[in-house]
Amino acid sequence: MxxxxxxxLRKTEITDLEFFFIFQLDKEANYLAAFTSKxxxxxxxxxxKYTKLLNDPTINMWTIMVNSIIAGSIAKFEMEGDAEITYWxxxxxxxxxxxxxALKDFLTIENTRPIFGRVAFDNLGSQKVLEKCSFxxxxxDKGFANARQAEIEEFIYKLI
Length: 160
Prior knowledge:
This protein is α+β, with helices and mostly antiparallel strands. Helices cover about 30% and strands about 35% of the residues. It contains 5 helices and 7 strands; from the N terminus they run E-H-H-H-E-E-E-H-E-H-E-E. The chain has a 7-stranded mixed sheet, sandwiched between helices. A hairpin with a 2-residue loop joins strand 3 and strand 4 (about 80-90). The protein is globular, with a radius of gyration of 15 Å.
């Protein structure tokens, strides 16, 4: 599906955060991500948080470029001692195979295994991305989703 697009990953730069902030303001994207910040419109808090994360040696953050345009982000972080994957794609790049290609490429750079992915129970697109990249659903959890103001189920995926 990613036929005419050049997709590359590059280390995230501080100036990329402005783009990422705008991407996460999209209401539909925020809803699907579910587990987001309490106030996605608080730009100062967003930039402070992600600037700090950029300098954290346990986080491996990359920017997804499509035809030289910033299309999203992908990162490995640690939660309760486990390596986890997270990614966010600008809505205009959805359903084009870009997230899958970016994740496959990222997994050649980030070799921590096992690595986990968590996704809202109804985020079918993200579930397909993980499955196409050989992640296997290993469990479920429940947590409070700020974007939905409710506790929801999330699926836990694992790549060995």
